[in-house]
Design brief:
There is one protein chain. By secondary structure, this protein is of the alpha/beta class. It has seven helices and eight strands, in the order αβαββαβαββαβααβ. Helix 2 packs across helix 4.
Length: 236
């Protein structure tokens, strides 16, 4: 029996709905936040920017219906510094981004989550539609990867189960995650959207954001962030 595109989408959405998905946002803290932007922004501006980006990410995952949200951080004052209260705070046990993610994987497993969305909270154009696109692509025993604008980094990774692979965030992480998923025989769905492409870490990223906004301003009839979703089996 042939399956229509609508049937396939319904099946995918049903599979995602069956998962209890948690979200994890690793966040170093507000002290000396966004240090790579120090040549462009003052410390107060960088602190304000980092908190705004974090709260934008919390709002997007909350509005998308994720069951629980945690921010794992080494900043003990974060909760009292304006963090969206819909997020739980996990004080980070060990140094480093991947240690923070491993701690979040343990948190998700202990809570009974079927899937964990790991989202780097530095995406200035992220919105709820971007998160829904990732969740809609999720399925048991599978992964969803949203790369950065260069295609080399990982800005979002949804794993079902939450500990499907060990995290390998950092420069060139997309290839490492694909390799680990292939070795674990876990199929990957790529989700590419403007909201998950553009992160904000360096002065070049600020220029890219300004260019994107100018392009949007000159294309009033253009739709925002049309989804580009490529489904494929695991492979490097």
């Amino acid at each position: 029996m042939k399956t229509s595109a609508i049937d396939r989408r319904s099946t995918t959405m049903s599979a995602a709905a069956d998962l209890r998905i948690y979200a994890l946002l690793p966040f170093r803290g507000l002290v000396n936040a966004k240090s790579r932007l120090a040549s462009a922004l003052s410390e107060a501006e960088r602190r304000q920017l980092a908190l705004a980006l974090l709260n934008r990410a919390v709002a997007a995952v909350a509005d998308a219906g994720v069951e629980r949200i945690a921010v794992v951080t080494r900043d003990p004052l974060l909760a009292a510094s304006g963090l969206d209260p819909r997020a739980e705070v996990l004080l980070q046990d060990n140094e480093g981004l991947n240690a923070a993610v491993r701690q979040g994987q343990r948190w998700a497993l202990s809570g009974g989550a079927g899937g964990l969305l790991i989202l780097l909270p530095d995406l200035p154009t992220l919105d709820v539609a971007d998160i829904r696109a990732i969740i809609d692509a999720a399925a048991p025993d599978a992964a969803v990867l949203a790369p950065d604008r260069h295609g080399t980094g990982t800005n979002a990774l949804l794993l079902a189960p939450p500990d499907g692979i060990a995290p390998a965030f950092g420069v060139g992480s997309a290839a490492r995650h694909r390799r680990s998923l292939a070795l674990a025989d876990i199929p990957i769905t790529d989700v590419e959207r403007r909201g998950t492409h553009l992160d904000l870490d360096t002065p070049d990223d600020i220029r890219a954001l300004e260019n994107a906004r100018r392009a949007a301003d000159h294309a009033p009839g253009a739709s925002r962030s049309a989804p580009k979703v490529n489904h494929h089996s695991s492979g490097v």
